[in-house]
Write a structure and sequence with these properties.
By secondary structure, the chain is an alpha/beta fold. It is built from 14 helices and 19 strands. The strands form 4 sheets. Strands 18-17-16-15-9-14-13-10-19 form a 9-stranded mixed β-sheet. The protein has a 6-stranded parallel β-sheet with strand order 5-4-3-6-7-8. Strands 1-2 form a two-stranded antiparallel ribbon. Strand 7, helix 7 and strand 8 form a beta-alpha-beta unit. Bound molecules: 6-O-phosphono-beta-D-glucopyranose. 6-O-phosphono-beta-D-glucopyranose binds next to loops.
């Protein structure tokens, strides 16, 4: 609650409080809050994640003056490179993968890459970590980074424990001095199933404290995912409706048009349930379903999302088919071009039963959501790339204007996470003319309406948060475990019961038709989104 004598922010003009120009104040805020000097060590520095996401994100932060005043990035990988070669490679990668092409300047890139360093390291060789320590001590002394180190695990997950253990053994994980920070960022997948996630958490907690662990889920770094919180808790009109009394069901979709590309080897051991549902989609569900936090700090926010995960009603092992539909894409023509089926992809077992599509129904057993179904789907080689949340509100109790046509849809609020990021409300209006015919119309907001405001990449936001010591948008250990606890019985049932069907679906379609059966009512189906948020119906650009 704000007390009347509290000075409002902004300035007064003609007796009216004006908001401060937001882009100026954002830049100002970034400069005022630059994180403390630190060294960032990236394990897996020769991998895809480093070149496509991490280095371009750090470069964008550098362009925005948001990097610490003094910092170094130390790439660590097996390849034998020297600093210069690493810098040259990263400069090229920034040009290829930066999401902000307007930031690209040879001069700024060459200034940025001077902060990059490289150490060749055999991850499993303990002696190499004493060389790492020496190198870190040197950079720390040179740059006066106060012993603040961030370790980013962008290496294969099987190496996580070894790296963390070796850092600990070299005295690089803990510090007796509160002003010195050591943080460990752990990429997904965090574990392979419940057992391995529990074991990894337990192991890491013997080497680091929980508040040093930053389990990254890049979906939480997406601007539009965070906007779910703002939409819900910065507006008075939605929250009273956000419950079982008004919401009929909730739909969460993450569709991708690409196949597994060059990641067949990884994907064949993972599948969609592990790759997208256990982490990204469950985190979105957490934000959609959580109670308002007492404060907007990392403990309060994460205390609320964990309650959602702990309230998920377990899917009964003997009724998996009623709640989960899995599919695998098969070869087909997409816009005239023949594409390979999943089993024909490189590094994929030709008899693989790994799913590339999951449709899921679940319930949250709490006061707010009791009885409201949540439907979730994620898949590769679907018609378009779209991630969105749809809140389907209950229909009015009386069909006053639709005596002949009771199938008129209820109101829908669509939160578009990507692409054409925005919010769409669909509601019924009178069709002009005689009588009382109604039609569905749109009320929409597109981020692109904000003009030249540039949406930060998820990695940019999350790396900045970690450097600043803010873990709100990182997954806490108990939340990761709770999500595994929910999906684990499904994985086990799939592994042990060959009778549970894996449906083939032609590439470029919306997954197995059987997934519609999850709704259990003939008049209900998934929303079929278009690339543009406001389009649907007859015209649809995919
Ligand atoms: C990754 C998955 O975590 O997320 C990929 O491993 C998936 O399989 C990707 O393609 C999707 O992320 P985004 O940001 O493109 O929606």
């Amino acid at each position: 609650m704000e007390f009347p004598d509290k000075k409002p922010s902004g300035f007064e003009q003609n007796g009216v409080i004006q908001e401060v120009n937001s882009s100026v104040s954002l830049n100002q805020r970034i400069m005022d809050n630059r994180p403390a000097p630190s060294v960032i060590v990236i394990f897996g520095a020769s991998g895809d994640l480093t070149k496509r996401k991490l280095i371009p994100a750090l470069y964008d932060l550098f362009c925005k003056n948001a990097m610490p005043e003094r910092f170094a990035v130390l790439g660590a990988a097996r390849s034998q490179l020297n600093d210069d070669v690493f810098r040259g490679k990263m400069a090229e990668d920034i040009k290829s993968y930066s999401e902000n092409k307007e930031h690209l300047s040879d001069e700024v890139i060459s200034k940025f890459v001077k902060n990059l360093h490289y150490i060749s390291l055999e991850t499993e060789n303990p002696d190499d970590y004493s060389r790492l320590k020496t190198r870190l001590d040197g950079l720390d002394a040179e740059l006066k980074t106060g012993g603040n180190y961030i370790y980013y695990l962008a290496s294969p997950p099987k190496l996580y424990e070894t790296i963390a253990q070796s850092l600990y053994s070299q005295g690089l994980s803990l510090s007796n001095d509160d002003s010195v920070s050591k943080k460990l960022i752990i990429e997904k997948p965090f574990g392979y199933n419940l057992g391995s996630a529990l074991a990894l958490n337990q192991k890491l907690l013997t080497l680091f404290h929980e508040n040093q662990l930053y389990r990254i889920d890049h979906y939480l770094g997406k601007e539009t995912v965070q906007n779910v919180l703002v939409l819900r808790f910065a507006n008075g009109i939605f929250e009273p409706l956000w419950n079982r009394n008004y919401v009929d069901y909730v739909e969460i979709t993450a569709a991708e048009s690409i196949g597994v590309e060059n990641r067949g080897g990884y994907y064949d051991t993972a599948g969609t349930l592990r790759d997208m549902v256990q982490n990204h989609l469950m985190q979105i569900a957490g934000l959609v379903a959580m109670e308002p936090p007492a404060n907007f700090d990392s403990t309060s926010v994460r205390n609320e999302t964990i309650k959602v995960f702990q309230s998920l009603i377990p899917i009964p092992a003997d009724r998996i088919d009623d709640f989960v539909v899995r599919g695998q894409y098969i070869s087909s023509k997409i816009r005239g071009e023949q594409v390979r089926g999943y089993r024909e992809e490189n590094d994929v077992n030709p008899n693989s039963r790994t799913e590339t599509y999951v449709g899921l129904k679940f319930f949250i057993d709490n006061w707010r959501w009791a009885g409201v179904p949540f439907y979730m789907r994620a898949g590769k080689r679907l018609p378009t790339r779209v991630t969105e949340v749809v809140i389907h509100f209950k229909k009015p109790p009386q069909h006053l204007f639709h005596r002949d046509n009771k199938e008129q849809p209820g109101n829908r609020l669509i939160i578009r996470i990507q692409p054409d990021e925005g919010i769409l409300m669909k509601f019924g209006m009178k069709t002009p003319g005689a009588g009382f015919k109604t039609q569905q119309v749109n009320m929409d907001f597109h981020y692109s309406n904000l003009g030249n405001i540039n949406i930060s990449s998820a990695y940019e936001r999350l790396l900045l948060d970690c450097m600043s010591g803010d873990s709100t948008l990182y997954a806490r250990g108990d939340a990761v475990e709770a999500c595994w606890r929910f999906v684990d019985p499904v994985l086990k049932a799939w592994e042990t019961n060959p009778d549970i069907k894996l449906f083939g679906y032609p590439s470029g379609t919306w997954g197995p038709v059987e997934a519609t059966g999850l709704f259990g009512q003939p008049d209900l189906d998934w929303r079929y989104p278009c690339k543009n948020l406001s389009d649907d119906g007859n015209y649809c650009e995919l």
